[in-house]
Model the fold of this input.
Amino acid sequence: MEAEDTLYFSWDGDPAVFSLNREAGFDEVFFIRGDSRDWAEGDGPLYAEIAINGDRLSKPDFESTFGIIGEDLPTLPTT
Done:
């Protein structure tokens, strides 16, 4: 579900993304913490936490740090 409207973050050294869900009309937040090998979906408070305390990365910087979504990282879930 990776789209042009995806924002990339490093959140305490872990990958996180905001992805616009056009059908629902809101952003979704997904993250991988620690040794987890799958994306988890966050809620509103977590969205704020990552936006405030995470480091926003360009897509190339995100991929260089964490890998490519759908190749090195799991594909983002669809909701």
